[in-house]
Amino acid sequence: MAFVVTPSPTVAIPVVGSQDLFPVRRVYCVGRNYGAHAREMGFDPDREPPFFFCKPADAVIPVAEGDTLSVPYPTLTGNYHYEVELVAAIGKGGENIPVESALDHVWGYGVGLDMTRRDLQMKMREMGRPWEIGKAFDASAPVGPLRPVAAAGNPHDAALSLHVDGAQRQHSRTSMLIWSVAETVADLSRYFRLEPGDIIFTGTPEGVGAVKPGETMTATVEGLGSLSVKIV
């Protein structure tokens, strides 16, 4: 028995200080998980239950430590937005995971960019339709090298920021998450069985905005390093 077409290669994220790779199975994203970002998007930041959306695994673009990755400006948009996020990588599967043991399922952490065709997302939202064309397009999820939990510092109270051509656009701390990493993992596991290889984009703070061809974004999470992406 053979495949009738060639299978796509496994998307894999580098691990800091190692030749090993983290294979990506699924990509989950948490919407509006910082209060100030919820307000700038026109929503009440009260602590309502988290909501999730997904990106395909091959939307992940691994960015090696110290590299600047060139990413093409996507089609059909005139309002291409950056969103810096803490990324949690799942190493132990489970469903209906208690909050108290949720962090035991996290293998490590990294920094990611949830790139967004904002105009298309807003159009779909206004029409009551899914967000996929605004969120789940090609190369929409650059991710820097992952660090195992033991080498990740304190990702639960870390500064995160985004600069465009050296000018700061976003800055906050992960302690400002409305739903913590543990709470997010626990809640997400009620809807999906989590498996090793899943990654979770945990939400972005205020300051999201457009990036243009020729500009370079640098996303940083304290203790986890930076990733650099140039739009071409």
Automatic annotation (TrEMBL):
Alphabetized InterPro entries for the sequence: Fumarylacetoacetase-like_C, Fumarylacetoacetase_C_sf
Class of this enzyme: hydrolase
Domain Fumarylacetoacetase-like C-terminal: 27-231
SUPFAM superfamilies recorded: FAH (SSF56529)
MF terms in GO: acetylpyruvate hydrolase activity; fumarylpyruvate hydrolase activity; metal ion binding
Keywords recorded for this protein, A-Z: Hydrolase, Metal-binding, Pyruvate
EC number(s) given by UniProt: 3.7.1.20
Gene3D superfamilies on file: Fumarylacetoacetase-like, C-terminal domain
Domain of life assignment: Bacteria
Name of the protein: Fumarylpyruvate hydrolase
